[in-house]
Amino acid sequence: MAEKTKPRKRYNCLKCPAYCCSYQHIPVTDDDISRLAEHYSLTFEAARRKFSKRGDEDSPRVLRHKEDEHFGSICRLIDTETRNCTVYEARPAICRDFPSQNRCGYYDFLTFEREVQEDEEWVATTGNW
Ligand code: SF4
Ligand code: SF4
């Protein structure tokens, strides 16, 4: 039987201001914390405190945030100037899996608006999409 080919990605994170990194609840597991601890040569406990905070019943630990000019707040592990993840190789599993399909709703909206507004740099914020 012929091997199925993966559908081509219909989004480009490098052209996006990283909207998904502004989600309030980005769950992290102990494995994710261990990876971050190793990346920064920190103890597990130090990395846990530095990069995560208490979440809720479904996600006991979530990534900490910092201020962001576009979305109000965003994951503290992002570079807010370049809009790139500063721990790409060591990023949490959920960040690797997202958006779990070949389209990203935010990117579709962003692309449409940038075309309409003829502005390649335009940023859609949570208030207007
Ligand atoms: S919102 Fe979509 S396009 Fe933007 S960084 Fe996240 S996954 Fe990539
Ligand atoms: S760890 Fe990186 S990819 Fe994940 S939310 Fe933070 S900045 Fe985004």
From TrEMBL:
It comes from the Bacteria. It holds the Pfam family CxxCxxCC. InterPro entries: Puta_zinc/iron-chelating_dom. This is YkgJ family cysteine cluster protein. It comes from Parvularcula bermudensis (strain ATCC BAA-594 / HTCC2503 / KCTC 12087).
